[in-house]
Amino acid sequence: MKPRFFDFPRALWAAAALGVAITAVPAFAQNTVKIGMITDKVGVAKAYAEPVAAGVSFAVKELNAKGGILGKPIELLVEDDQAKPDVSATVARKLIDAGATFILSVSLTPATQQAQSVTKDSKTPHMTPSNSGDTLTTQVDNANFWQTGPLASTQIATLLSYAANKNYKRVALIGENSDLGQLTNKFFKAGLEKAGIQIVAEEIVAVGATTADPQMQKVRAANPEAIFMTGITTGPNLLILKSYRQLGLKSPVLANYNLSVPVYMTAAKGLLDGITFVDAFDPSKPATQRFIEAYKKDTGTEPYNLIGYGYDGMMMVADAITRAGSTDSEKIRVAMQATRGYKGVMGSADAAYGFADGKRTGFDSNGMVVRVYEGDKQGRVLHVGMK
Known about the structure:
single chain, about 375 residues, alpha/beta, Rossmann fold, 2 domains, 5-stranded parallel sheet, 12 strands, about 15% strand
């Protein structure tokens, strides 16, 4: 007599059930393309990381509405590294173990650097669509890592190009004393000196200060043709702008990339009209206009540069995987490295992403723009690129 269903030993049924589960998990995993994202939800990079992450999420939503990647829906796996390098490495490993085909880092630059130690060993494709550190692709020899945010050196060179076209010969530097602020000031100073532009005053406002009047009085006394704002910390920058207005300075202000962050439109209300700043976002660009309208329709809010970085980064990942025709890591690496002439929503009208000559920094070197505040709103483009 053949054994009936209930005659099988329980241990054998348990093993059979386990066998079904073991085979079912890979089958389920193959039904999605898993993209990992490392962000910062609570740390010092939160204000920047969250909008970039929002751009990634919006891109995933658009892609899934059109069928996903390779005919499969995208599953976005999100981890918070709190902007801590050691945590970033840990969550990178967690994402890889969860089956992430590609990892996007939108956290602090040092955290992204540390996560590379994991993705290099595992050969997992890895990109930051927003970090601007010049050494991200050079300090770690990781052929599976790319950077599509504009390099800090490109940002500075674009603003210096604008200054040269204005024929400024005597300028002042005003910054703050955070580590990154001092480094940015150093880069600006070196660029100005190389361009033969005289620095007639150099002042620093301490983080935590309550006024910038003493520093700005010295700047006014030096009578520069233009003033470069080099600081990246919001507090000191607000004090500088307030003092600039109250002391009645007339020299034009050329601000670094930090002034492109929309928080200034509310925090520095009434202080911004006429201030110029370097950016990678041109709202008049047709592709950017379409992106703005689509994002507004979906979320009810207007996107800005940081959101655009995340959007472009995810779209480039999808493009590379599609061209690879596979989720195989090596095929994706080859496809991403072969990216040329990719048009996104970021950059000037003619800007295109690409990794020419084996380089892994993909933002167009002439894709940055200089814009001007018109009232309290970020306004038109005045200058394009480093030429």
